[in-house]
Design the sequence.
């Protein structure tokens, strides 16, 4: 007799075998980096688009935004519009993340070769922006998957002096949820070794298709409206994120800059209890603040309390010490 768990294992294995594919793009060193008008010419020569929200005068504060999985730089529009109207002198630079839906290299979408590629993209982007605006304070803002990238980039940087002066984490995923089946985690990690480029959807991994990401939208329904949505990601990318999630507590021990964490009580990807534990274990020298929205879901910038979320970020930015 086939048990439900066995049936689930067979289904997942079948999906992985059918979706295994090749990616031909290989990362190489470029030697030249530059900030073009709308593109970052990154460490390996690849050109990644970015979007800006710029004040009329030279900015004295810059937020560098890193979006979440299957997201885009445009996800920062609610925050960008609010800050332009209410906090003059603040700019936002939001880049399209390597391996996500607006990556110019289409065959790489949904895949990442090595997490250090994300780290080097962000480091390169930041140093070029700081060179362009040497007097401005720089704040990294990571949303969801972006929170993993900004935290790990900071933690494992050899030299942090030219990076960010403060950090914002919106809907950070700081641990694997306790209700996520261990067998799925073990299976994904094992399959990733054999079939790193096999692809699976987030819904298949979660075992449900009605994942709510805001009060009024389901992930699968919202995704169909986004031209940058990626239906399936490779096991290498997903297990890389899993490793980064498990490493968030350790990575946070390196923080010695102001930190602001925003999270929702109905976030399906991140348990609020895990976020509280994460905050309690930050170094004593880390000046941290938090905002908890009990009735909000994962996509805080686009949920029913979005206006309050961006206003709270504005208030926190105003309190940062002068650079």
Sequence:
């Amino acid at each position: 007799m086939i048990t439900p768990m066995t049936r689930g294992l067979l289904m997942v294995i079948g999906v992985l075998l059918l979706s295994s594919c090749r990616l031909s793009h290989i990362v190489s060193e470029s030697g030249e980096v530059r900030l073009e008008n709308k593109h970052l010419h990154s460490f390996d020569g690849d050109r990644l688009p970015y979007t800006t929200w710029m004040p009329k005068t030279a900015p004295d504060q810059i937020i560098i935004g890193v979006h979440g999985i299957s997201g885009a730089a445009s996800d920062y529009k609610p925050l960008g519009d609010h800050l332009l109207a209410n906090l003059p002198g603040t700019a936002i630079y939001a880049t399209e993340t390597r391996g996500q839906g607006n990556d110019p290299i289409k065959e790489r979408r949904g895949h990442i070769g090595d997490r250090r590629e994300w780290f080097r993209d962000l480091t390169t982007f930041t140093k070029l922006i700081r060179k362009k605006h040497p007097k401005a304070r720089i704040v990294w803002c990571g949303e969801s998957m972006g929170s993993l990238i900004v935290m790990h980039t900071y933690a494992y940087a050899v030299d942090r002096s030219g990076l960010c002066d403060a950090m914002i984490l919106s809907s950070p995923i700081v641990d694997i949820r306790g209700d996520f089946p261990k067998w799925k985690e073990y299976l994904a990690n094992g399959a990733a070794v054999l079939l790193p480029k096999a692809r699976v959807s987030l819904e298949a991994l979660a075992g449900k298709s009605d994942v709510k990401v805001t009060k009024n939208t389901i992930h699968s329904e919202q995704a169909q409206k986004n031209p940058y949505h990626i239906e399936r990601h490779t096991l290498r990318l997903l297990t890389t994120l899993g490793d980064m999630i498990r490493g968030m507590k350790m990575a946070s021990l390196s923080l010695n800059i102001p930190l602001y964490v925003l999270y929702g009580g109905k976030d399906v990807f991140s348990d609020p209890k895990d976020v509280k534990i994460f905050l309690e274990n930050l170094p004593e020298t880390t000046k941290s603040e938090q905002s908890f929205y009990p009735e909000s879901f994962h996509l805080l910038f686009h949920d029913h309390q979005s206006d309050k979320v961006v206003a709270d970020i504005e208030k926190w930015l105003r309190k940062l010490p002068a650079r």
Q: What stands out?
A: The first strand starts at residue 34 and ends at 35. The radius of gyration is 19 Å.
